[in-house]
Amino acid sequence: MLIRRSLGWPITLGVIMIVLLVALTVGWVIIVVFAAHLTSSAGYWWAILAVGTTFLALVLVGVVLYLLLSIKEIRLNQRQSNFVDSVTHELKSPLASLKLYVQTLSRHNVTTEQQVDFHRFMLEDLERLDSLINHMLDTARLNQAPLADETVDVELSEVLRNCAKTAAMHYRLPEDTIALELEPAIVRATPMDVEIVFRNLIDNALKYSGDRPEVTVQSWVAGNGTIVTRIIDNGPGIPANLRRKIFGRFFRLGSELERSKPGTGLGLFIVRTLVKRLRGDVHVRGRGSQSGSVFEVELPGHALVAQQSAA
Q1: In 3-state terms, what secondary structure has residue 265?
Q2: Which residues contact 142 (CB under 8 A, 6 or more apart)?
Q3: Which sign does the torsion angle of CA 233, 236, 239, 245 carry?
Q4: Residue 38 scores a pLDDT above 80
Q5: What is the DSSP string of 146-195?
Q6: At 126, which helix (H) or strand (E)?
Q7: Rounded to an integer, what distance in angstroms lies between the CA atom of residue 204 and that of residue 243?
Q8: Of 97-101, 115-119, 291-295, 306-310, which gets the smallest average pLDDT?
Q9: What is the CB neighbour count within 10 angstroms for residue 143?
Q10: What is the sign of the dihedral through the CA atoms of 250, 252, 254 and 259?
Q11: Are 229 and 299 in contact (CB under 8 A)?
C-alpha cells in the first residue's frame, strides 16, 4: 500500500518557524533600539540593527521558500501516488475481466448470444488497455521535439472530423452526438500532435457528459491569424478553483478509489504541453447557467481558402 504524506505537518512547521522568526526580528529591533538610547555610539548600534535585520530577513525568506517547495513536492508525490493507483486499476480491471470471460468460454457451454456479449465485453476491455497504452506513448512523445521535416500544413477541420468520428465509435454513439461547426483552416504542425490534442479533448467531453452526451465542436479563423477551437460538453463541469490545476501532471478530480471514470490524469497535461509546443494556448471555462465545460484551444494558422487563393 502506498503511504501518502499529509500536508498538515510541513504547513504547521513552516508557520511556526515563520512566527518565531518574526518574533525574533521584532525582539531584535526592540533590544537594539533600546540599547541605542543608552549609549552615545548610536551609529554602532544602528549598524548592528541593519546587519541583524538583514540576516533574519534572509532566513525568513529561506524558510518561506522551503515551505513552498515542500508543499509542491508533497503534492507531486500525492499526484504520483494517484497515478500509480490509477494505472494499477486500469491494468488490473480489464485483465481480470478478460481472464474471467476466457475461463468462462473455455470451461462452460454458453449460448451464441452469450458468446457475442462476451466478445463485445472483451473488445471493450482491450480498447481500455489500448487507450492506457496510447496515453503512456503520448506522454513519452512530449520529451521528443519534432523534426523540421515532420512539420507540415494540417487541415484542422479534417482532423476534428476524424477525432469526433473515432470518439463516437469508441463510445458506441451515433456520429451526430457530436455537433460539428467547422471552418476549413490550416495549422503548421506535426499531424500526430494535433490529433493527440483534440482526440483527448473530445474523448473527455464524451466520457464525462453522462448518459446523454451532447458535445459541440466549433472551429473558426479569428482575425488575428489564430484558429480558435471550442469543445463544449454537457457534463457536470469543473469548479472554478480547479480549472488551472486540471492541466497538471497526474491531476484528477476526486478520490482515486471513488471515481467511476477510467483515466490516468495525463490527458490534459499532454494537451497543454503539446498546445504550448505549437505556440498556442488552452483554457477552460464554465457554461454560465448551463451545466458543462468549454475547452478552448487557440493555435496559429490561417483560413484554407486564403492558401488556395495564394496558390
Answers
A1: coil
A2: 270, 273, 274
A3: negative
A4: no
A5: PPGGG-EEEEHHHHHHHHHHHHHHHTT--GGGEEEEE--EEEEE-HHHHH
A6: helix 112-141
A7: 15
A8: 306-310
A9: 7
A10: negative
A11: yes
